[in-house]
Design brief:
By secondary structure, the chain is α/β, with parallel strands linked by helices. It is built from 17 helices and ten strands.
Length: 379
């Protein structure tokens, strides 16, 4: 298949990343220099997943909520939303007494006002400056669970370079990235801070490269025609670029941003206050869906059926891609790498994207995943 034909089949994929929050007047004073890429990679908060548990069923004595509670859920439509889609498709939400309505969203910053106002009860997002600034201003959004992270065998993003730069030896180490034209989805996105870490590993900053902002399909085309030297790509574009010769994987994300958080589940303040039982029950259903995904891709349990479900609910319709690309990683207990979020906030502050730093410990609320683990058993 030619590159243009392959791009034609992929350009319709909705790969929604957490784009930069709206620019804020006057940069905040930069804190002390964040740790290097190596230092900024705290140990995982949980051990590697254990063998598949014999059951993923909640306790039989937990009757569904009656009457059922309506829940509005903001989704991006990406593979990172797999836990939501599985819970919906397999009836886990209904078994908890929840009527879940999916509300499409196209970016993390745009969903934050809907969470703050209670127009959306639950949403997938990422650790953008907008999230930290909102919470720092007193908005009671809580980050409650993992929705995508880098784990062994789940390095679903990478820094891709033009093949000639790698083959010629022009780029061998991180310091050789100096002067290159490198693309991310935008300042303040999770992938932008991941590139920050790669540059930092070579003693560089964004001032040492030519920074570009492009969508994933446009990055592939720009690499292929030489308009870019490198780009941060996510699956399935990562595999597509390698298969079609648009670029080569130079460094996988687990090399320069191990244990990175790329997605989070957040609750609206009104949902927490007005529907505390529904908030707990939502997490049980979500964790069941997430574990089904982990069982399918890590242990081969019902993998074909899982791929059918993802093809139905996400824009990744090419079944062959699921056999070659690295899947999104999830913590089977839904836990969050809080140390990673702290460093992310430090990076945003250093780069002038933060006006109101948040108390990260107060931002993260793990009571809901703890409740779910108590009912389902911990893995």
């Amino acid at each position: 298949m030619t590159l243009l034909a392959y791009l034609g089949s992929l350009v319709t994929l909705l790969v929604v990343l957490a784009v930069a929050a709206a620019c804020v007047p006057g940069p905040a004073a930069a804190p002390a220099r964040p740790p290097s890429a190596a230092e900024a990679a705290p140990a995982p908060t949980t051990a590697a997943p254990a063998a598949v548990a014999p059951t993923n069923q909640p306790r039989a004595d937990d009757a569904p909520l009656s009457p059922p509670v309506d829940v509005k859920l903001g989704v991006f439509g990406t593979l990172g939303d797999a836990g939501f889609y599985v819970a919906e498709e397999r009836g886990y939400f209904l078994q908890e007494g929840l009527n879940v309505e999916e509300i499409p969203s196209d970016s993390a910053p745009r969903i934050i006002p809907f969470l703050a106002s209670g127009q959306v009860d639950v949403a997938g997002l990422s650790q953008t400056p907008g999230l930290f600034n909102a919470v720092g201003r007193g908005i009671g959004i809580k980050v409650v669970a993992d929705k995508g992270r880098v784990l062994p065998g789940h390095a679903y993003a990478a820094l891709v370079l033009r093949k000639d730069l790698v083959d010629s030896g022009a780029v061998r180490g991180y310091g050789d990235l100096r002067g290159l034209r490198l693309a991310t989805p935008g300042r303040g996105t999770a992938m932008w801070t991941e590139l920050w870490r790669a540059l930092d590993a070579g003693g560089l900053s964004f001032a040492d490269v030519q920074e570009e902002t492009l969508s994933q399909p446009d990055m592939m085309q720009a690499l292929a025609n030489g308009a870019l030297d490198g780009a941060m790509l996510l699956e399935p574009f990562l595999t597509a670029a390698a298969n079609n010769g648009a670029g080569v994987v130079w460094r996988s994300i687990d090399e320069f941003a191990p244990n990175a958080m790329n997605g989070l589940v957040a609750y609206a303040p009104s949902f927490i206050q007005n529907q505390p039982e529904a908030a707990k029950r939502f997490m049980v259903a979500y964790l069941r869906g997430l574990r089904d995904y982990v069982d399918a891709f890590d242990h081969g349990v019902g993998k074909d059926e899982m791929i059918d479900l993802l093809i139905k609910h996400t824009p990744v319709k090419n079944r062959a891609l699921y056999a070659t690309m690295q899947p999104v990683g999830f913590d089977p207990n839904g836990l969050i790498n809080v140390d990673y979020l702290r460093v992310e906030q430090d990076i945003y502050a250093r780069e002038g994207l933060l006006t109101d730093p948040a108390d990260v410990d107060a931002l993260v609320d793990l009571q809901y995943v703890e409740y779910a683990a108590a009912r389902l058993g911990r893995r």
